[in-house]
Design a protein that fits this description.
Structural class: alpha+beta
Distance between the termini: 30 Å
CATH architecture: Sandwich
Strand content: 15-25%
Shape: globular
CATH superfamily: q2cbj1_9rhob like domain
Number of strands: 9
Number of domains: 1
Largest sheet: 6 strands, antiparallel
Bound molecules: 2-oxoglutaric acid
Radius of gyration: 16 Å
CATH topology: Jelly Rolls
């Protein structure tokens, strides 16, 4: 699939997010699954934000070569270069496996720890890649389009909004501004939802 950098950049600017449908091919997806299988199955989240029925594997780049290659994806880096200064940094690289019975996460944006008031220029950009297809029933990420532009009242506005599920096939990824409001969804289905998130920030 031809990558239309301008269209993806415009979508992030306007809506706060974009989806790269063909982010991982079948070979990459298979390698990601193979590697994560070594690590999954032993932990669960330590608090409601991590998710008590969710398993996270942190520092993926330190665990297998495939995750370096994915972090350096040319399309993602081109979009980072659009919104961040040259030589952006990686701030997170983690797998997120939402298991059946998980409740929705609190609505949040990924760079709440920066104290720069909102609305603000982008300080960070996140990706969430689907290793399993995302659906409304298996904990697919829920988003609020346009929320990246909200100000300091974002919590009140989020409470009144109707988040929508990012339904996407395995191998796709959603990329969004660090100010974009979203959450991991509730998981009602019997199978887990495996994903991973790489996050980048200003150098
Ligand atoms: O797993 C997801 O779909 C979202 C997780 C998330 O937003 C987070 O943990 O910060």
């Amino acid at each position: 699939m031809i990558f239309d950098l301008e269209a993806h950049a415009a979508a992030i600017e306007k809506n706060g997010y974009t989806i790269i449908e063909d982010f991982m091919d079948a070979a990459r997806l298979a390698e990601v699954r193979r590697v994560l299988a070594f690590y999954l199955g032993t932990h669960s989240g330590r608090n409601p934000f991590e998710g008590h029925s969710t398993e996270r594997v942190y520092t993926l780049v330190a665990r297998a070569r495939i995750f370096w290659d994915i972090v350096l994806d040319a399309r993602v880096l081109a979009l980072c270069d659009r919104f961040l200064l040259p030589n952006c940094l990686l701030t997170a690289s983690q797998a997120i496996c939402i298991r059946p019975g998980e409740v929705p996460q609190d609505l949040h944006h990924d760079d709440t720890f920066y104290t720069v008031p909102r609305p603000r220029p982008m300080i960070s950009i996140s990706t969430i890649a689907a290793v399993d297809a995302f659906t409304a029933e298996n904990g697919g990420t829920e988003i609020i389009p346009g929320s990246h532009l909200w100000g300091e009242d974002w919590r009140a506005r989020a409470a009144a909004a109707n988040p929508v599920t990012v339904a996407m096939p395995a191998g796709a990824c959603v990329m969004f501004s660090g100010t974009f409001v979203h959450r991991g969804g509730a998981a009602e289905r019997l199978a887990p939802r495996l994903a991973f998130s790489n996050q980048y920030c200003q150098p």
